[in-house]
Predict the 3D structure of the following.
Amino acid sequence: MSLLESLSPKKGSTYKSKRIGRGNGSGKGGTAGKGHKGQKARAGGSIIRGFEGGQTPLARRLPKFGFSNVKFTTRYEIVNLTELNKFSGDVTIDVLKESGLVKKGPVKILGEGELTATINISANKFSKSAQKAIEDKGGKVEVVK
């Protein structure tokens, strides 16, 4: 059983600290390993990360980018009532694509202009005025998901 007074750290795990500023004979005298003059040679001369000597830091000069919900919003292709006058009977999103009124994506019907034809239309969304105008002409509105 070992005695407490015989305990010591493992060989090589401890070392003597550098005694800086203790004369030229020590090898770390004079400037104490800090070079000549300047902010880092002074007491308390630490410089914060990103500091560029008063110049506007790179992090502030570059344009910012990051998360935005804009790319996740649903963008509807818009079709007005006046554009629907050339159709009759049943009108679907595929019919609107074939005619060139819409290219891709969800379709919303807006109530701008007057509707002369009676149509049954299916689209992703309708404005209240468009829905009322279609139903007043005797047509039907079907919301497609």
